[in-house]
Amino acid sequence: MTGPVVVGVDGSPASVTAAWWAAREAVDRHLPLLLLHSWTTQPLDVPVAQETLGKQRYGGLVLQRTEAELLHRYADLSLVTELVSESASKALVDAGETATLLVLGSRSHGSLAGFLLGSVSLHVLGLAQCPAVTVRAGDPAVEDGWGNPAAIGRKEVVVGVQEPSPAADPLLEFAFTTAELRGARVRAVRALSSSLVTHPHASHAGESYEADERTRLAADLAPWQEKFPGVEVVHHVARGSASQVLLAASARSRLTVVGRRRHPSPLTWKLGPVAHAALHHLPCPVAVIPHD
């Protein structure tokens, strides 16, 4: 896709960190960056009068400050700003129809209330037509750059590949593309049921089961390794729930990629348990990829 990278900014530390991450993605992907601010959906602690003009002025200042900082960091960044009157969730979902990527800030670790603008992020993640990424406020690997000590051990893009099907293709495309851009390896994760029929050779049966699934996973990934020959791949197969296995596998993740089914109606959406677990518990950026 050639649409912009879109990031929602509201002046909070979370949105600033998200904007830094989004700018780096835009530069690396040779895409323009769109900074979007909804003056009708601002944090409750905005230190301005609540009149319309005050909110609009605040929004304009937020965009100007963020634009100046990003252009200082990335001189070759192509950047535009947009101050909108629509709600933040509607503006971001609408922008996602033509964007390559949406980026949102997350204020705190492990709290629904910590997402940028309260429930806005969850709404956007559930409805966006393009990949959407949440970035934690204060993530040192984002704020200080990938060469700093906090980022040295985070060399992987982790992606959940539970079933071999066309639904996994958008996740793998995003994971391999990002890994290639970042010089990272891909860790493809598949969780196995921890229950096996009990019999005298249960241990041997379990080992055979895991070996078979590892072989299947390698076969599923073979076309992607051929398409991205420079990307190292780790086949990660483990027992447990999909959420538990993915969280454990993401200890060294630079980015974790999860999926979310598309829904025919904007009134019907939800994030699955794996996506919820990643968004609530992982400190690294999390990409939610819609698929059929």
TrEMBL record:
<feature type="domain" description="UspA">
    <location>
        <begin position="155"/>
        <end position="290"/>
    </location>
</feature>
<protein>
    <submittedName>
        <fullName>Universal stress protein</fullName>
    </submittedName>
</protein>
<comment type="similarity">
    <text>Belongs to the universal stress protein A family.</text>
</comment>
<dbReference type="InterPro" id="IPR006016">
    <property type="entry name" value="UspA"/>
</dbReference>
<dbReference type="Pfam" id="PF00582">
    <property type="entry name" value="Usp"/>
</dbReference>
<feature type="domain" description="UspA">
    <location>
        <begin position="1"/>
        <end position="136"/>
    </location>
</feature>
<dbReference type="InterPro" id="IPR014729">
    <property type="entry name" value="Rossmann-like_a/b/a_fold"/>
</dbReference>
<dbReference type="InterPro" id="IPR006015">
    <property type="entry name" value="Universal_stress_UspA"/>
</dbReference>
